[in-house]
Design brief:
501 residues; alpha/beta; Rossmann fold; six-stranded mixed sheet; globular
């Protein structure tokens, strides 16, 4: 009998169906790989199993008994541990405090036993001592650790609770090959002790190396579940893609010019390692691949929001040293993020202030000439069909789609020659997407160069002139013409990824 069963799981977020009746079964003492393309529902399914999201319908059984966890604490008490893509570490706290957060050893008086805490943390660190690098000890602050070190600490935090079911959601994404080997060694030991593991990864080679069984999800449904020895790389990719149909090609006004607008050579920054490409005037250059493979890091590095480690950038044949967003803005480069809350709007400030802040920042205007600024932004308000009651109303009063239009209008008012779009349609309605697509087409016909990262594969393939596929912080394929299809995209995205640097 399986230790865990999920059947007919449904979940909808607003108008978006995340799960449409997914099924999953996990055996004790087994590693079960769960894979699928961006937005297929695998992370949502795991969050439901772990109690952090409630299902709309369906049944979860643990040891054959129906369960429904109201929060992660209940799931943890039942023996379910989760490593999430978004690390849950508290950065100002120490390594030891993070590993045993909520499970700290106490003295008889009830006070924290710091000696025992350090000792237990030291023992935990020994599991990865050979690969975790320097500067990692019980009293080290997590804020001072590198991305790979933080990821290993997060894994240790999950293991410290001694769960009998472990969900690892992209737990190896930031690790190099030696670190992955160390994690796999630990997984095999846990498996031998009867632990059951759900393993989500974007690396196909890892699936065949560590998993006993693989389940593929597509469009919120389970479409394949097989023992690993009874399937193949091609069968798995075919299950993810489904019926191979070319993406809908939009009628477009623009034709990319031959003139190079942006040239990047051997760029390294954050997750990026040796990225090189050229983008032309009037071109939409798509950045594809699975989530977190360096697409957003590239756009933020080009905008000066992430420091460069190496490489060079040229805009219109002139070298660009992106020391910060303001210096980049003065070279007519704009950046629009799909994460409106963090990198977009100032929700409690008026729409007018949100619209003009980029103009004011780039030009260092001391005096705010309201009428002049309204005239400068009005054409873009009308082009994007932005709906609002008054420019003095707060952005928080607008719908998500109109908030995103405010961000886009803000940057269009600066008349950029290069536009960096980082998943700009995430969480917005269909009509707003159509308005954005038309605007992009119009901008390209005027010679603007657009770099587009989108987590919507059909959108990316349908509106991009070319697609660069990222895997492990590197460009691993360029899709042009008829190659712009899901089969080719997934083949490149799920190929053996270069280990993280």
């Amino acid at each position: 009998m399986p230790i865990l069963e999920a059947s007919g799981i449904r979940k909808q977020f607003g108008g978006v169906v995340a799960l449409a009746g997914a099924d999953f079964s996990l055996d004790a003492g087994a590693v079960h790989a769960l894979i699928g393309s961006n937005g297929c529902g695998k992370s949502t399914l795991c969050k439901i199993i772990a109690g952090s999201v409630a299902a709309d319908a369906g049944t979860i059984r643990l040891d054959g008994n129906p369960v429904s966890f109201s929060d992660p604490q209940e799931a943890a008490a039942a023996g379910i541990g989760v490593f999430y893509q978004e690390l849950s570490l508290v950065r100002p706290m120490t390594v030891a405090e993070n590993i045993y957060l909520g499970r700290e050893p106490r003295m008889r008086t009830g006070l924290l036993d710091r000696d025992a805490l350090r000792s237990q943390a030291e023992n935990a660190l020994e599991q990865f001592r050979s690969v975790i690098g320097t500067g990692v000890h019980p009293d080290a602050r997590v804020a001072d650790l590198s991305a790979d070190q933080s990821q290993l600490i997060e894994i240790l935090k999950v293991l410290a609770a001694n769960p009998r079911i472990i969900i690892l959601d992209e737990a190896t994404a930031a690790l190099d090959r030696n670190q992955v080997d160390a994690v796999f060694h630990r997984i095999r030991a846990l498996k031998a002790d009867g632990c059951a593991i759900i393993f989500i990864t974007h690396r196909m080679d890892e699936v065949f190396e560590i998993a006993d069984r693989v389940t593929v999800m597509r469009n919120g449904l389970t479409v394949l579940s097989q023992p690993i020895g009874q399937t193949s790389h091609d069968e798995i990719v075919a299950a993810m893609v489904g019926d191979v149909m070319p993406p809908a090609r939009r009628e477009r006004k623009h034709v990319p010019a031959q003139e190079t607008a942006l040239e990047v050579e051997q760029l390294s920054a954050a997750k990026l390692a040796g990225v090189s490409f050229k983008a032309r005037r009037g071109e939409i250059l798509g950045l594809g691949g699975l989530h977190g493979q360096g697409q957003s890091a590239l756009l933020r590095a080009l905008f000066g929001a992430l420091p460069l480690k190496a490489g060079s950038i040229q805009v219109d044949g002139k070298r660009l040293a992106p020391k910060g967003p303001r210096t980049v803005m003065r070279r007519s480069i704009a950046y629009v993020s799909g994460d409106r809350a963090r990198h977009g709007v100032m929700a409690i400030r008026p729409i007018f202030e949100n619209l003009v802040i980029s103009l004011l920042s780039r030009e260092r205007r001391v005096v705010v000439q309201t009428e002049r600024l309204e005239r400068e932004t009005r054409p873009f308000i009308e082009r994007l069909k932005l709906k609002f009651s008054s420019l003095q109303a707060t952005v928080a009063e607008l719908s998500g789609g109109n908030q995103q239009k405010v961000v886009l209008a803000r940057w269009l008012a600066t008349h950029p020659s290069v536009l960096l779009l980082d998943d700009p349609t995430k969480g917005i309605d269909i009509q707003t997407k159509e308005d954005l697509y038309s605007t992009m087409d119009e901008l390209c016909s005027q010679g603007v160069c657009i770099l587009l990262h989108s987590s919507d594969d059909e959108e990316l393939l349908g509106i991009s002139d070319r697609v660069l596929v990222f895997n492990g912080g590197r460009i691993v394929a360029e899709l042009t013409g008829e190659q712009r299809n899901r089969q080719a995209l997934y083949e490149a995205a799920y190929a053996t990824a270069p280990a993280a640097a």
